[in-house]
From TrEMBL:
This is GMC family oxidoreductase. It comes from the Archaea. The keyword Disulfide bond does not apply. Keywords: FAD, Flavoprotein, Oxidoreductase. Residues 206-236 form the 4Fe-4S ferredoxin-type domain. InterPro entries: 4Fe4S_Fe-S-bd, FAD-dep_OxRdtase, FAD/NAD-bd_sf, GMC_OxRdtase_N, GMC_OxRtase_C, MIP_CS, P2Ox-like.
Length: 542
């Protein structure tokens, strides 16, 4: 069956020529770029957003969901990743699955994210002071608190005040939390017996109608596509930025950043268009918001006589200290119906083992998975069931599989990095990113600790354990961080506490790439908070 989608029409007749010199050029339209662009446009600034990928049609989402369900397609097919445009190399101890990690398009990675939005804890900003590990951030949790609250309102977050381990809050969540799933109730008795506390997890999806978007209708394919729009994507703030006068140019991959003769300020952002032309967008301020892989890559591609090792790289830290959240999981079978495949996202977690006194094991959060088996609709489509047979398959699709996952803390390591692979070029002749990723002893020990807890829970339930993640070869949670890290010392970091690069006075980076340490919480809410903080400083400069 052919599934026709409309994102990549070459003859779309869109004007992609540059604007006259603008106040701000934002590179990237994911959550960081969209929130920064909206914040600055709302303040009255002239903003242009450059996005490497296309503008996807919302009306195509049902067909994208069908792509995900049908076995003829792979994950990367859903949002059309791959080919020369998205070529990369992975040469570290572990393979890094970049093209399942990112989406190039208006909305960025939020087009396929799961939508979990916990805050980082106070200890995440103080790793060196508390444990002698990594580095301290030049800002604290209290510095970000008002921005966390603002992003929760902007995205629309459903949550509850039932997490005793959560850092201090200043206001309730905008929406009530989603109720626990049936599978969560099976875990609850065992966790209670073991004095392990389950609680809700903040979600950037609507538990009720919010901000013009519908309540969640339960498609269950949130990751990688929400057909209803109930899950937040950065398209929301792209549209709000445009309503405030910002201009968004899609399919405009940035090729390099061009500085003035002094090497202290940027003059322009060079970008390509589908017609084969290259343009220069001049701007008073530039905000890089293209993620932890493409941000350092673009800086390295922008080398010059003044910056022979890459733009803003006098420290040598551009591309280094790549971090991820290794995933540690345990699977089990229970001799009763679990219905763990009826919800497409987690409704309960445990943050009890996040804050800790000793340096090792590190932080972790337990995830009680609600999609441990293929969804009934996926099974039905694969087997060709329709009509009454399909209804029967959905009703029967309960299963008896269970899974508990964990995200764990990985320390920044200089050898984990993004660099240029000059042996292969992309569709514009630029060297592709080369990713070097390994885990390290700290994360391995933390994964083993997480799996001991998971085994205790399953043993208490009387479930039969069927498999566990290899701590030496874990999957990545698809949360790259840390490749242009923040710091007070220009000798060891790329940006300062206001997210401005130490070397270039009108270049700001709003991205997970600025994270000094990675913690073990999903990073998107922190990305959003940092983006709003950065936008305030850019506004001051203008």
């Amino acid at each position: 069956m052919s599934v026709l989608l409309t994102a990549t029409s070459v003859t779309d007749e869109v004007d992609r020529s540059p604007s006259e010199r603008v106040d701000v050029c934002v590179v990237g339209s994911g959550p960081a770029g969209a929130l920064a662009a909206y914040s600055l446009a709302e303040r009255g600034h002239d903003v242009v957003v450059l996005e490497a990928g296309p503008r996807f049609s919302f009306e195509d989402r049902l067909r994208r969901m069908e792509r995900f369900l049908r076995p003829a397609f792979d994950w990367v097919d859903v949002w059309e990743m791959g080919g020369d445009r998205d070529a990369y190399a992975s040469t570290g101890e572990l393979h890094y699955p970049l093209n399942t990690t990112r989406v190039k398009g208006v909305g960025g990675t939020t087009l396929h994210w799961l939508g979990l939005v916990p805050r980082y804890h106070e200890k995440d900003f103080e790793m060196d002071s508390r444990y002698g590990l990594g580095e301290d951030w030049p800002i604290s949790y209290d510095d970000l608190r008002p921005y966390y609250a603002a992003v929760e309102r902007e995205m629309g977050v459903a949550g509850a005040a039932d997490n005793p381990f959560e850092p201090p809050r200043e206001s309730p969540f905008p929406m009530d939390a989603f109720p626990p799933s049936y599978a969560d109730s099976l875990f609850e008795a065992a966790c209670e017996a073991l004095e392990i506390t389950m609680h809700s997890i903040p979600q950037a999806r609507n538990s009720e109608a919010y901000d013009g978007r519908s309540q969640c209708v339960g498609y269950g394919t949130c990751d990688p596509v929400c057909p209803s729009g109930a899950k937040y994507t950065a398209e929301v703030h792209v549209a709000k930025a445009e309503a405030e006068g910002a201009r968004v140019i899609d399919r405009a991959p940035v090729q390099r950043l061009v500085h003035d003769e002094s090497g202290e300020r940027l003059e322009a952002v060079e970008y390509a268009t589908p017609d084969g032309e290259t343009h220069r967008q001049e701007a008073r301020q530039v905000v890089l918001a293209c993620g932890a892989i493409e941000t350092p890559r673009l800086l390295l591609l922008s080398e010059s006589d003044e910056y022979p090792d890459g733009l803003a790289n006098s420290s040598g830290a551009v591309g280094r200290y790549l971090m991820e959240h290794p995933f540690a999981g345990t699977d089990a079978l229970l001799m009763e119906e679990t219905r763990q495949n009826h919800v497409g996202f987690m409704t309960s977690e445990c943050h009890q083992f996040y804050d800790h006194d000793d340096s090792t094991p590190g932080s972790l959060k337990l995830e009680f998975i609600n999609n441990a088996e293929p969804a009934p609709v996926e099974i039905a489509l694969r087997d060709g069931s329709w009509g009454d047979d399909l209804v029967g398959a959905i009703r029967r699709g309960s299963g008896n599989s269970l899974r508990i996952g964990a995200l764990v803390e990985q320390l920044p390591r200089e050898e984990n990095r993004v660099q240029l692979d000059t042996s292969r070029t992309d569709d514009h002749g630029n060297p592709v990113p080369e990713i070097v990723w390994s885990v390290g002893d700290h994360a391995i020990e933390t994964m083993r600790y997480a799996q001991r807890i998971q085994r205790r829970i399953f043993n208490e339930m009387g479930a039969r354990i069927t498999g566990q993640t290899d701590p030496h070869n874990p999957g990545a949670a698809r949360h790259p961080m840390g490749t242009t890290r923040m710091g007070a010392d220009p000798e060891t970091s790329v940006v300062d506490a206001r997210l401005r690069t130490h070397d270039i006075e009108n270049l700001t980076i709003a991205s997970s790439s600025v994270f000094t340490t990675g913690g073990a919480m999903n990073p998107t809410l922190t990305i959003g908070a940092l983006s709003l903080l950065a936008a305030e400083y850019v506004d001051e400069d203008l």
